[in-house]
Amino acid sequence: MTPPAPIPTAPTAPTAPTAPTIVLAGHGMVGQRFLEALAARGVTAAARVVVLAEEPRPAYDRVRLTSYFSGTAPDELALCDEDFLSSHGITLHLGDPAAAVDRERRTVTSRSGRTVGYDALVLATGSYPFVPPVPGSDAEGCFVYRTVEDLLAIEEYAEERVRNAAGAGIVVGGGLLGLEAAGALRGLGLRTHIVESGDRLMALQVDAGGGAALRRTLEAMELEVHTGVAGEEIGTDEAGAVSAMTLSDGRRLPAGMVVFAAGVRPRDELARAAGLETGPRGGVTVDERCRTADPDVYAVGECAHAADGTVYGLVAPGYEMAEAAADAVAERLARYGAGVAAPSRPRMFTGADTSTKLKLLGVDVASFGDAHGTADGALDVVYADSRAGVYKKLVVSGDGTLLGGVLVGDAASYGTLRALTGSVPPVPPGTLVLPEGADGSRESSGGLGPAALPEDAVVCNCHHVEKGAVRAAVAEQGCTDVASVKKCTNAGTGCGSCVPVLKQLVEAELEAGGVAVDRGLCGCFAHTRAELYEIVRTLRLTSFSALLDSHGREEARGGEGCEVCKPAVASVIASLAPSIGAEDHVLDGEQAALQDTNDHFLANLQRNGSYSVVPRVPGGEITPQRLIVLGEVARDFGLYTKITGGQRIDMFGARVEQLPAIWTRLVEAGFESGHAYGKALRTVKSCVGSTWCRYGVQDSVRMAIGLELRYRGLRSPHKLKAGVSGCARECAEAMSKDFGVIATSSGWNLYVGGNGGATPRHADLLAQDLSDAELVRLTDRFLMFYIRTADRLERTSAWLERTEGGLDHVRDVVVHDSLGLCDELEALMAEHVAHYRDEWSAALEDPEKLARFVSFVNAPDVPDPTVRFTAERDQIKPDLTLLSGPDLPVRTAEDAHGTAGLEGATAR
Amino acid sequence: MTTATTRTTSTASTASTAGTASTAPSARAADDADHAHAAAAAPHPRVEVHDAQGWFALCGLDALTPGRGVAALLRDGTQAAVFLDRAGRPYVIGNRDPFTGACVLSRGLLGSAHGAPFVASPLLKQRFDLRTGSCLDEEGVCVPVFRSRIR
């Protein structure tokens, strides 16, 4: 190995850097990973880093590109934010790719003519889409599928030129990329053809059987698959735009657009022009440290021809190359004495696992190890169910070692199987491909739990985390759940496909360590809240004690329940009340005994035992007359007033016995309960929208009022906040809400899972450009799905993060109805809306409920003497001196005596 | 220790207790009397508490909801929290939450853990054993306990 040359300051560098300069050509996923790896090694602090990028936007998640069509905004795909660049002093030039390298002078010149001297140059230029030489492939209406800009162009063309003309779209290429593109065109409403010159779909990943299963499933989705044929010519209309494609078998497919997704080729032209060696099928030749023949030049990712002779088109090997190159660069800087520590065990890239698991058009496709059985003496074990579109094949050696496999239609066992590759599984291979339960067992993977995995089995491929590391995180580092193991080991933070296996491993390890994994709601129920919801719903249980006595833990049956399960079950019963025939007021019957004090008094308990009152102000819109009523009520009852963050008015300092009188006045003036006391919809905040604002594009106030009135009173696992902004300026802060709506020129975008507070989270885009009716329908489904499946006190943000499959799964369920639940979810919400009644006006009409609003059961007219106030800034505040005195002497029943004579406490 | 006595239909004992407690809740007493009058044999039991001066009636049993509490004033002017469990047993403890100083324990939720009945403070959720008054979540903290019964 040639020792790396010391890095002198490049004398000819026009920018005359004092620190060594590292130039990165390309800012894709691998380029970004390289920057992160440099930062992690302290290199960015010691060296100047300049990035020359071709695309107009910083690195983004190209793997998830297609999710743009299911509503992910391009910005949400971003992998690199301004903070990362500025905090590490990285200079990024967008839209200005490297155009030439002068290895003699060690400079790079960009397209715009910028010349930067380098001490180390890293090529991460990626690939370009391969367009087969079909006559007409440069016509208007021909696209490639690689960048965000490509997708935006495809979308615009499809919507404006093709869909309206009821035209079809053709995708050339039946591989991974081709199927993604086909899914996109289908999603855009186009009749879609897939033209693949090979004999099957996804030839690289799956075998003939898998390809056939995939084909049947896609055809059932009305995609037209043409294999074994190539495009011969693209026909155009008078204007020169695509009108059809002629295939090699003579057929002619009329179509308004063609998307080429027939593979990629490494972008090595920069290296070629600079005289660097390239591989036989392209790609800059590098060694295992990702160095080219020039020791100052490195190449990583799809533009590199790696040391094992392969050009990798997957991101995981690219990441590994980025890490290896970062080690090599750090080592050079260390030798140069730049204050960077040399890596103790520099990484080498000698080849990578190309196992993949994907969900294409809703179909699971996975391949791992020697999927095609190329090894000598490789044997197949196959399970196929054509009707269900399931195909599974394992490749094993003569001695039973698992070599690889293909899974189509059901890839649930992928994580376990991939990790078992290279070992002899502890059960016969046939068991491993049978569907769950086929052998009478209920275990997944044919009875194989994670316990069967060897210690060095790689559980997380993206971050190369072995089973042993996961176990150590639990056993030695005190991790007690998947989230903490993710944080500790990085496992599961890449593509996320290993999370189910990770979860099993963590639970098995906890159990082995004697930690009982109890997912029960509390000491009274071994069920989760979601399970209790299903029990209440299906058995139509309307009583807490009935539920406790029939479904509680053995030791808790017949007991009282506790402060955890009572309100949680009360909330479940309230959410389902109309459909299970429960009493519909939270203070009716037994329900009254289950409510937290806030719900019990329909007001918010404050620190001195007084309550605050918040009437609903839908959308934050209020007439002057009502505003005056609020002022008068607050004045007459001596209440402290404050404007809330949810655009309403909170009135503090009410004693419990004052609440009915206060609400009598409020109800008379037309106010309703604001449910500030409940785990329920709070407010739907809005900006003034297009009615007043010169920027507004939709009437956000009208929509906010409509949503707030629709969902008012809806009991949920936790409070729900919402917002509606009338334009993209987002003045209503909708992205920080459980559900947020932002107006677009053609409708509404719906965001979900946002949060403010201590753990802020920007909401994720669920769907875009919705009509009013579509928005309401999706919101109905989303909220009901959340209510059905969330844990107690789990906000939508935490729920979305915890839910297996995350946003994609939730979108599948509520947008694409993958579980067939949507009708039911909508019906539940319709019931809620139909049965809504203001809780306060109902309470005022019911003497039995009102009887609870007394200070003392035996002295209803005597105010609690400890609830007193003093003045501050012209308003009241709790007089805490009454509370902070010495504790009352503790008395037992035998020696009961007390400090007598608080004012007002006359003997009864 | 708390005594849970069985219900009794003896109006005599109720009357005498009410007499001891000077002006025990008159409105409710009248309601109960009417009720008793209307359905001659129907019981109208009361919850009684034992303070320094002996037994004294706080309220009619029907003023309590199983699983919940109410606040009551004792004869010395201090506040009590009165609870009824599912089995119909009454419990009376001091109403003041020692962690915050606020008189709110009566508004907490009743629960049971390993057979022990408790109330969880509605403010910061500490639990207190209804039979002993001791806090289940912090050793050394407790609230007063009063004997109670239903008569």
How would you portray this structure in words?
The complex is a heterodimer of chains A (908) and B (151). By secondary structure, chain A is an alpha/beta fold. Chain A folds into six domains: 21-128 and 266-336, FAD/NAD(P)-binding domain (3-Layer(bba) Sandwich), CATH 3.50.50.60; 142-262, FAD/NAD(P)-binding domain, CATH 3.50.50; 355-448, Enolase-like, domain 1 (2-Layer Sandwich); 451-515, Arc Repressor Mutant, subunit A (Orthogonal Bundle); 529-593, no CATH class; 679-837, Sulfite Reductase Hemoprotein, domain 1, CATH 3.30.413. Chain A is built from 26 helices and 38 strands. Chain A is globular, with a radius of gyration of 32 Å. With 151 residues, chain B is an alpha+beta fold. Chain B has a single domain, classed as Rieske Iron-sulfur Protein. Helix content of chain B is 15%, strand content 32%. Chain B has two helices and nine strands; from the N terminus they run ααβββββββββ. Chain B has a six-stranded antiparallel beta sheet. Chain B has a three-stranded antiparallel beta sheet with strand order 6-7-8, with no helix packed on it. The chains are: A alpha/beta (908), B alpha+beta (151). At the A-B interface, helix 17 of A face strand 3, strand 6 and strand 9 of B.
